[in-house]
Request: fold
Amino acid sequence: MFCYQCEQTANGTGCNISGVCGKKPDVAALQDHLVYGLKSLALYADKLGRNPEIDRFTIEGLFTTVTNVAFEPAGIGAMIKRCYELKEKAKALSAAVVSGPYAEWKPAEDVAGMAAQGELYGLKTQHEDDDTRSALHILMFGLKGMAAYMDHAMILGQSDDDVLAFFQRALAATTDSTLGLMDFATLALECGKHNLTVMGLLNKGNVGTYGHPVPTPVQLGTRAGKGILVSGHDLKMLEELLKQTEGKGINIYTHGEMLPAHGYPELKKFSHLTGNFGGAWQDQAKEFVDFPGAVIFNTNCIQRPAQSYTDRLFTWGLVSWPGAKHVEGWDFSAVIEKALECPDLPENPGKEILTGFGHNAVLGVADKVIEAVQAGKIRHFFLIGGCDGAKTGRNYYTEFAEKAPEDTVILTLACGKYRFNKLDFGDIGGIPRLLDVGQCNDSYSAIQIALALADAFKCGVNDLPLSLVLSWYEQKAVVVLLTLLHLGIKNIKLGPSLPAFITPNVLSFLVDTFNIGPITTADADLQAILG
Ligand code: FSO
Ligand code: SF4
Reply:
């Protein structure tokens, strides 16, 4: 196997024995095979035009291969089979004539055979030139991240034909050995552009269904009684579970990236949406031991579970883990039954933290914010956002937030916030110094806030007293970064380490064009930003 798509990749270069994430070589090979199949399908789907069944499958297929999503070989094998059926269908419908190994792809009948084929389809086999391959992989990982956001948007009934067409065109392009570095770099930035549309669709889906988030205190810890813990990013799945548990004496808790769900009016109206439990995704295996109820994952990031809670662990949607029970569709009765069998949670409430500062809430107090900036009460804004992870070096973000001067405001989003979201930052004239904009899925909201501030101050986003200090982990962060670059946002600080799939030459291009740079130390970076 060889995989280097996420930040925790082995030795900072690539997982080649087994995935640090828990991905075994057979699963890695099956995921590589699925991606190969999706490219084969795209050769025909690109010619066919929009076909809802094929386009939907492409989105789900790509999301399946994102870090910390799918670990169950049989499920991935079934997707490869389905991919082949759809490819044959697209071939017949489009009557397109294409040739070459991708066009001729045919998977083996059994999962072991598919895994053996997958070993030949790995990342290293694509394009000879390192820089071209680097740009190709940036595009490929960007497509995976965009597929994750598109999946959530489509679950909420949102779609866009141009975006769906781009998925097929870009996937087909990755099979073209005549394309070079600049072709893939251009496609990668185009991916960032389309992702802005996708993030807008997702925002429309979330806000249209659940209302604009409003600032909301969220209880940490547990309340006496039965409980279900929901982890992931999908709001619709949470809503369905809330409906199905109403009046059953079960408290519903959010974990990790589900925290911002508490801010949505149509979700917070459920009185049994009780609180938030635990920290960021990488702490789940040790923290879930202390959550005696049922646990369900609706998206990444799932980790190898500790034995003690595997029997009360469920997965939903594209997430899978061998041995965890998978819920098909929207019937959560098995989870509810398990929660009722489990022992009660103790009465152990913790402190309250605030969430719900989406763009609507922040821009609702824009006058106050602008006044505070003009009066010199707010000197600078930091967006400290992105993913958390297990590797050392991420304390930088805690230290940065702690050391940010008291006349600065911190906007945050995604699971990286768990590095500092339980600290007290106080407020500036009633404006909290820490504003939780939401999930990584809400990056659109942060962009809207930046654009509105730029508008108010009659300047460009790069001229605002705003610095982006980002942490990345998996492919959703890659595509958000591509979106920021597409928007021309400069001077981003990125950590905790730079992606292994970026070659020195591609990095120089990014530094020269966007002045993007690695984080150093909190003190030095604050000094460099604030002077
Ligand atoms: Fe985090 Fe995981 Fe939201 Fe990612 S829980 S790391 S970028 O899946 O999506 O921020
Ligand atoms: Fe390694 Fe990350 Fe790939 Fe998992 S997803 S195999 S940790 S690079």
About this structure: The radius of gyration is 23 Å. The mean pLDDT is 97. Residues 68, 233, 256-257, 281, 300-301, 387, 414-415, 439-440, 473-474, 476-477 surround iron/sulfur/oxygen hybrid cluster (ligand 1) (CB under 6 Å). The CA atoms of residues 45 and 90 lie 6 Å apart.
